[in-house]
Task: inverse folding
């Protein structure tokens, strides 16, 4: 079935090296008497009294599959919606991830590999393991350039508001998307990130997106970061091996009666991940929130299997004919959750 070609996702098209650096405790990380990292200790501060954001961090809540979870269709401008649908029909083979191109704003919203933050008085540097990329955030008082030369990662300036670092980025080119689903943006995109290190091991991050040429309102996404104590980055190389397989156009959607769709609505949970999977029905469209990623439309492939932006979602019935489980078939492996209510 052609739709199965879209199983290939961003994480599958990129290959991290498996070698690891020698284990070495990170200086400055608070520790308990037995030497373990104390992630609930007060946030460290730099010599100038500002919270020190330095460290290796990983995104806690990802919007990889849908970075516009709360936007209504009428809040997406027609050209952007048409481009999103065209990308979906062609298995996302025109997206930056499939083509081994820099991800642009996705680095702040969804990229799974860690980011290393290096903080100095006038410059904050973000080193991304993903594709071995970097960003510079200038905190020396300069403003954004009036007519920036569009780039993949944009131009960033920052300022402190109390204990929160506010970073504003503009100057993106429009060759990237906001998520793996292919929601586009224009060169007018402006992203504002608010970093607040609430303790040694946790960073609150609020990301606000504003793009008046593509979307009719701004929206804010809570992302948050978790410290990877004693962690280090490794090299990450993109291999352009998937695009040749993403050809043609996906099949027309299988039609599932609404009364059948309603049987799948509910909350599913997994003891392994601890995160709930929420399935809802909006009109005639089944929606899924796989562990806090936001609502994602499910495209029917058969009566009980659906495409979730390329990943297959399957609903399983028990011996009594009642829906008991939902299984997400990711490239990395299956994620099964049992029905709770």
Result:
């Amino acid at each position: 079935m052609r739709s199965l070609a879209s199983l290939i996702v961003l994480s599958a098209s990129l290959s991290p090296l498996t070698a690891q650096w020698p284990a070495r405790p990170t200086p400055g990380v608070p520790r308990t008497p037995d030497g373990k990292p104390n992630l609930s200790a007060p946030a460290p501060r730099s010599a100038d009294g500002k919270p020190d954001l330095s460290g290796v961090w990983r995104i806690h809540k990802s919007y990889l599959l849908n970075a516009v979870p709360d936007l209504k269709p009428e809040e997406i401008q027609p050209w952007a919606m048409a481009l999103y649908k065209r990308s979906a029909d062609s298995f996302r083979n025109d997206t930056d991830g499939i083509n081994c191109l820099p991800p642009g704003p996705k680095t702040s919203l969804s990229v799974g590999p860690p980011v290393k933050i290096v903080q100095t008085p006038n410059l904050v540097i973000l080193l991304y393991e993903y594709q071995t990329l970097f960003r510079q955030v200038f905190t020396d008082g300069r403003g954004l350039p009036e007519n920036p030369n569009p780039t993949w990662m944009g131009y960033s300036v920052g300022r402190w508001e109390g204990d929160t670092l506010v970073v504003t980025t503009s100057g993106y080119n429009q060759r990237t998307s906001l998520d793996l689903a292919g929601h586009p943006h224009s060169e007018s995109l402006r992203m504002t990130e608010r970093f607040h290190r609430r303790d040694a091991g946790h960073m609150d991050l609020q990301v606000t997106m504003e793009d008046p040429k593509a979307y009719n309102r701004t929206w804010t996404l809570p992302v948050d970061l978790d410290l990877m104590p004693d962690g280090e980055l490794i090299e990450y190389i993109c291999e352009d091996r998937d695009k040749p397989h993403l050809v043609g156009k996906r099949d027309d959607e299988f039609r599932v009666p609404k009364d059948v769709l309603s049987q799948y609505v509910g909350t599913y949970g997994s003891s392994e991940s601890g995160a709930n999977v929420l399935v809802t029905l909006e009109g005639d469209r089944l929606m899924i929130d796989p562990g806090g990623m936001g609502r994602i439309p499910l495209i029917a492939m058969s009566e009980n299997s659906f495409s979730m932006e390329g990943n297959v979602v399957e609903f399983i019935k028990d011996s009594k004919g009642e829906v008991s489980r939902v299984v997400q078939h990711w490239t990395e492996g299956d994620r099964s959750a049992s029905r709770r209510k």
Summary: The helical segments are 78-89, 106-109, 258-261. The longest helix spans residues 78-89.
